[in-house]
């Protein structure tokens, strides 16, 4: 995807991309035409750091990556609205309600979801999140003053809201908190590096990159001792309590993605794979018996690599190549 095209994307494209299965088009603008706020702009983050609390109006379809106070006031009935929040991998999102004036009895609602959900697909998946799906929704109309501050379990969260009466609305403040052991992460950028550590915990953790990428694993410690297995029905790491798998697909939910490769033995060195999917996920499964760790780096496939994807093709839209 050309950078010029990415810069022209607005938040509405989040939903349009989801409907088309093109979830890699995630970089979206987070303000109006008179406020050129780019969702993933490092320059903006540096500019805002050290300043007073950032304020702006919230739109019906929006995405936020910075701390601040945001207000939504309905100018007309707004029945299908959502705002997505994202932080750095080592951050959690806290949503504090400052003011809420909605008509719960009249059909309005304001709900927080712990994670992201697009076209029915969730991140983290139900297999990887510590809470059952029903408990990941926090409805203001049900909890009211009991839950005026809500913290996510990972670096992404979102709200859904519906408001019928013009003039009604709400104000909330977004804060970010440090997460010492990040588990489930959506990357804000198509290039980066990360180390995932699961210290004696029985849990599964997924790192999602919403781009076709080259991913290079440089260090893997699983508690038991160089192998990379391309997925086949009769092979892989089945029965092993601790392993890493690479997944690819066009949706958001790792449990619905195509399994590409397993790593089930520790190694120090390099294992590299090209994955031409809209969404690439590195997922670690941990039994809780060991301290498991994986270090990796990734960068987006360039246009030439996307157009010449002939090695070890699994599907036309999604190919692995070592």
TrEMBL record:
Give its localization: Secreted
List cellular component terms (GO): extracellular space; nucleus; secretory granule; synapse
Domain of life per record:
Eukaryota
Q: Which UniProt keywords apply?
A: Disulfide bond, Glycoprotein, Secreted, Signal
Domain (Corticotropin-releasing factor binding protein N-terminal) spans: 52-177
The UniProt entry, under Pfam families, shows: CRF-BP_C, CRF-BP_N
Task: Specify whether Disulfide bond is a keyword of the entry.
Answer: yes
Stored InterPro entries: CRF-bd (IPR008435), CRF-BP_C (IPR056178), CRF-BP_N (IPR056177), Sperma_CUB_dom_sf (IPR035914)
This protein's record includes keyword Isomerase: no
Could you tell me which SUPFAM superfamilies the record lists for this protein? Answer: Spermadhesin, CUB domain
What's the chief localization of this chain?
A: secreted
Pinpoint the Corticotropin-releasing factor binding protein C-terminal domain residues: 185-307
Task: List GO BP terms, alphabetically.
Answer: behavioral response to ethanol; cellular response to calcium ion; cellular response to cAMP; cellular response to estradiol stimulus; cellular response to estrogen stimulus; cellular response to gonadotropin-releasing hormone; cellular response to potassium ion; cellular response to tumor necrosis factor
**GO molecular function terms attached to this record:** corticotropin-releasing hormone binding
In the record, the note on similarity to other proteins reads: Belongs to the CRF-binding protein family.
What this chain does, per the entry, is described as: Binds CRF and inactivates it. May prevent inappropriate pituitary-adrenal stimulation in pregnancy.
Stated name of the protein: Corticotropin-releasing factor-binding protein
Query: Per the UniProt entry, what species is this protein from, by scientific name?
Result: Chrysemys picta bellii
């Amino acid at each position: 995807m050309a950078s010029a095209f990415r810069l022209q994307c607005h938040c509405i494209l989040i939903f349009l991309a989801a409907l088309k299965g093109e979830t890699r088009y995630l970089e979206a603008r987070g303000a109006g035409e008179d406020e050129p706020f780019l969702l993933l702009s490092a320059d903006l983050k540096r500019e805002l750091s050290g300043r007073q609390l950032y304020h702006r109006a919230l739109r019906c379809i929006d995405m936020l990556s910075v701390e601040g106070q945001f207000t939504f006031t309905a100018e007309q009935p707004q029945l299908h609205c959502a705002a997505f929040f994202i932080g750095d991998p080592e951050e959690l999102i806290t949503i504090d309600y400052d003011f809420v004036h909605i008509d719960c009895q009249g059909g309005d609602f304001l709900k927080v979801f712990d994670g992201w959900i697009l076209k029915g697909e969730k991140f983290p998946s139900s297999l990887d999140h510590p809470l059952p799906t029903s408990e990941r929704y926090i409805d203001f109309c049900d909890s009211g003053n009991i839950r005026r501050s809500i913290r996510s379990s990972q670096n992404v969260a979102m709200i859904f809201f519906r408001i019928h009466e013009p003039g009604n609305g709400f104000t909330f403040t977004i804060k970010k908190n440090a997460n010492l052991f990040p588990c489930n992460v959506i990357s804000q950028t198509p290039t980066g590096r990360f180390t995932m550590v699961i210290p004696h915990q029985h849990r599964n953790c997924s790192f999602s990159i919403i781009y076709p990428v080259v991913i290079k694993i440089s260090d893997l410690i699983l508690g038991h001792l160089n192998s990379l297995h391309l997925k086949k029905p009769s092979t892989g790491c089945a029965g092993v309590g601790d392993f890493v798998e690479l997944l690819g697909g066009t949706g958001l939910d790792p449990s619905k993605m195509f399994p590409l490769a397993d790593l089930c033995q520790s190694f120090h060195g390099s294992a590299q794979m090209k994955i031409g999917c809209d969404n690439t996920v590195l997922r670690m499964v941990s039994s809780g018996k060991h301290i498991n760790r994986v270090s990796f780096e990734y960068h987006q496939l360039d246009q030439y690599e996307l157009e010449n994807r002939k090695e070890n093709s699994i599907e036309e839209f999604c190919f692995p190549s070592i």
